[in-house]
Every structure is written in C-alpha cells, then in structure tokens.
Write a structure and sequence with these properties.
- By secondary structure, this protein is an alpha/beta fold.
- The protein has 2 domains: 15-233 and 370-489, 3-Layer(aba) Sandwich (Rossmann fold); 239-345, no CATH class.
- The chain has helices spanning 15-21, 104-109, 169-186, 201-216, 239-244, 246-255, 261-264, 268-288, 295-309, 313-318, 325-331, 363-383, 408-418, 437-447, 472-489; strands at 36-46, 49-63, 69-80, 91-95, 114-116, 130-132, 142-147, 155-156, 194-199, 223-227, 339-340, 348-349, 423-429, 457-462.
- The strands form 3 sheets. Strands 1, 2, 3, 4, 7, 8, 9, 10, 13 and 14 form a 10-stranded mixed sheet that branches. It has a two-stranded antiparallel sheet with strand order 5-6. A two-stranded antiparallel ribbon has the order 11-12.
- It is globular, with a radius of gyration of 23 Å.
- The relative contact order is 0.17.
- The model is unreliable at 1-27 (pLDDT under 50).
Length: 499
Amino acid sequence: MKKIVVSCLVFVFVFSAIAQQKPSASANDIPFNPDQSVTADHEITIRGVKVPYKTITGMMPVWDTEGKVQAGVFYTYYERSDVKDRASRPLLISFNGGPGTSSLWMELGYTGPRIVNIDDEGYPLQPYGLKDNPHSVLDATDIVFVDPVNTGFSRAVSKDIPTSRFFGVNADIKYLAEWINTFVSRMNRWASPKYLIGESYGTGRVSGLALELQNSHWMFVNGVILVSPTTLGIERDGPLAAALRLPYYAATAWYHKKLSADLQSKPLAQMLPEVEQFTVNELTPALTMGGFLDDAKKKQIASKIARYSGIAEKVVVQNNLDVSLQLFWKELLRNEGYTVGRLDSRYKGIDKRDGGEQPDFNAELISWEHSFTPAINIYLREELKYKTDLKYYVFGPVQPWDRSGDRTGENLRLAMAENPYLHVLIQSGYYDGACDYFNAKYSMWQLDPSGKMKDRLNWEGYESGHMMYLRRPDLESSNQSLREFIKKTLPKPNQPAKY
C-alpha cells in the first residue's frame, strides 16, 4: 500500500471523544415510530452458491419496568429464506463500538451481504455506493445488526428519559439484553444457536451481554466473537501497559520497512514472536525496575526497543524506555514528513509541522468516513426503503458515559465457566494501534487464569488494522474463520457439553 490519505481536518480520533464532538441536540425533535419495520426479498451469490434472503429493517422498543416505551432501537435483520429448519439455524447478533457508533462498520464492511465500494486495500472509491459481498457469512448464519440508543436511527422517545438509562457500561448491557430478548421472541429464534459479535467497544458490550443474557434472561449463547477487542476492564496499568505496546510498534515498523535487514527479511508472523518473547521476558521486568534499573541494562533494553520499534535509541532513552503511542505515530516517519494512523498504521497523514509529539489527525478514519457515511444512507433509505427524517448517527451523542464498574472481561469468564457450550474467538489486526493485537492476546491469557477453559479461547491475527476486513484478502479469510468457528461450535445432537 503506497497511497497517502490526507485531510484538512485537525482530528484526533477516540470513539468517545468523537461522540462528544457531534451535535448534542436531541433527535427527539423529529417524530418517529419506535415500533415499525419494512421487509424485502433479495438474493446473493456467496462462495459460488445462490443464497435467497429477506431483510427486515426497522425499530423495536425498549420498555421500562412499568411497560412504558423508553426508546426505539434500530436494527437490520438478514434471514436466509430457503431454510426449512430454523431451530438449527444459527443467529449472529452484531454490535459495533464507540460506545457512540452504529453498526454500519461491520454491516457494510464485514459480514453483511452488501458492502461498501472500496478498493482491495480499503480506500474509498467514487462514486460512493455498495456492492455484493461474496464472502458474507449469511450462507451459514442469519444476522441482525443492532444500533444502541443515539446511534444510527435509534433514539429515546422523550427528552425527559434520563440518559443514565442507556449511557454506561452496565446500563448499556442491561437494556440491550432486554431488547435481544424481545427480538428473539418476536422472530421465533429461541431454539436457534446464538452468537454475539462485537468490534472495539462492542467487545466489552458482547462480553457483558453473554453473562447478562444467561443470568437475567436464561438465554445461553454458543459463541462470542471479539473483533479488535478493548481491555475488557482487565488491569494493565504502569510498566505492563508500556511494555505490551512494543509488538504493535514492531509490526508497524516492519510494514513501513524501518527494521534492520534480518528482521525485515522475515514474514511478519515469523518476526513478531521474537519481539513478543522480549516483551514478556525482558522488557516488562526492566520497566518494573523504573529509575533503579542498572545503567548497562537500561542501555541494552533501549537498544532492543529501538531495534524492534524503528525509533531511534536516543528517543527511547529520552522517554525512559516508554515511547507513548502518540509519540510513536508522530516519530516513526517524521524524517519523511509523515505520521502513521492510529486505527490502521498503514495509512499516512501530513501534519502542519513535522515537530511535536502527536499527529494532527488520524488519516485512516477520515478515509473510512468517505466510504461508509454515504453508503449507509443510500442502503437504508434507497435500497431497503426505510423511510425516516431522522439523521443517521455514524457517531452519536452518548456522553457522559458511565465507565465505572467495568467487569466485562470477568463477566465473560464467568459466562464461560457457567456455560460449557460457550466458545470465544478473538480477531485482531497487526496494524491496529487503538486495540492492538498483543493486548488482545494478553486479555485472552487473563480471561481464564485457571487454564481450564483455554481450549475454548482462540486468537487470530491479520495483516491490516482495526477494521481488518476492509482489506480484501482479510475480508475473505476472516469471514471464513467465522464460518468455521460457528460450524465447530454448533451443538451436536444428543451430545451434552462437559467441563
């Protein structure tokens, strides 16, 4: 990839920060029906086979304890229409993250039957629009894409409803579990094997939902898929947090050809284990020593960090062996006059000045917004014929968001312990600096300290970024991985699960 994506916007991307920057006015100024839908029939060819399906696009309500409608949650449901036995047909329930972003990314980028018109590396093409997704998992599972309140078209029905009802780690999980219960009941899917998939902040969401669904709604899922997972509330502050970033730095430096010849000559997946071993066995203990690390050892560690990160040893020493993410994105290509992207470090940006310690904006997100925002409006309003005057919130106003009490990783562990059918698949892009791949591995290692469930935990890496599916080869391989994961974890008739 040699293209350079630039923008006149000064933009530092954090999903929650974006939500704060978007218009805060309530969309309740525009009337809408919180319980409506439109249905259409379609056909697509997936892996050479024609697959007929129907879409149901609309809203379903969320009620309070007194039965009063609180909000309308928008969804798009894809159901293969030539299936006779719906009881054995899997259902995949999909969320994105933010927490203030809608489901358009995975719907139009990953698993849905229609995807954005982009090139093979994920760059936008004009005119904007969509094309069929020949790799969609719709051949193997029905899919529903869900937009939490104040994302997409989802809205509270009144300005008087407290935002605390929806905007918080645990509040979000609680009301969405209630909504899923309603959806499964209305669509007659109680017998179906169920899977939860979430991206970015959505990984914490689905981790919490796995436990909430089985404890409060007696609904047990067969699988949870974590795409570019967050920390899931698992502690890793201080020296450990600093150390865990290095393998991502190495992957990015490898991509931009900033490593020594011996490292650069190896395929990425063969080069990274050396960096990972150094991170665990040498860097973490060294950083733990802080300012009391022996001078000779400090120089040795600094030299290795420079070797693996592509950052000059002098800069490493000046920062006490702890090169921050912002500085890395600014420093790696500083001498060439470019920065690297946060969510996908293959992308390059141009800053106002080469000096400084952080990029002016995140080039990859600007590129993605080019493609997805027009496409989702074209798709819902024109192709699926969903009529509304509501604005589609790609990033919606969901602040303040209550982040207290985040135990989503522990919730997932407990859900797995209670439910022997539950398996977990983690997918990461090597060039994702927001939810990096080695932190995802660390989360997987910590999810089950006992080691008794590690055969139900699996991780996969892809040579792309946060939305690894935007790169065409990874779109194919990651969907195939989902297909195989679902097939492998489907319940076997008359075979009880055992711990």
